[in-house]
Amino acid sequence: METKFKPGLEQIKLDYKIWLADKDGNGILGDGKWKMLKLIGEKGSLKAACEELGYTYRRTWGNIKKIEDFFGFPLLEKHRGGAEGGSMALTEEGKLLVKAFEKFHSNADTLIQKGFREFLDDISNK
Fold this sequence. Notes:
Mean pLDDT: 90
Oligomer: single chain
Helix content: 55-70%
Number of strands: 4
CATH architecture: Orthogonal Bundle
Low-confidence stretches: none
Radius of gyration: 20 Å
Strand content: 5-15%
Order of helices and strands: HEEHHHEEH
Shape: elongated
Number of helices: 5
Distance between the termini: 11 Å
CATH topology: Arc Repressor Mutant, subunit A
CATH superfamily: Winged helix-like DNA-binding domain superfamily/Winged helix DNA-binding domain
C-alpha cells in the first residue's frame, strides 16, 4: 500500500522541550533555565548570560531564586567588587544540577529521536 504521507515527510521536524515540574505542575527546571545556569557558569556573569540568550535580568533572577527555593540551597555564588564589578559562579550543587540535567536531557534526546525515526518509518510504510 502506498502512503499519502511521503510528500510531507521531508518537511517534518521534531521539536520539543523538556522541563521538570513539582506535584502541582509548576515548572522547576527546563531547557531555558538549564541553558541559563550553564551559561552563567561559563561566562561568570548573570548579565552576560541574559544578554546572550535574550532574557531579562529581573525575570531570570526570579527564576533562579525559585529553583533555589524549591531545592533549598543556593545555585550561585556572588563575588562583589573589582574594576569589572564582580562575578558570579555556580555553587557545587549548581554544577551538579547542570551536569545531571544535561545527562538526563541527553538520554531523553536519544530515546525521543529513536521514537521519532520509528514514527516516520511507520507513516512511510518502511
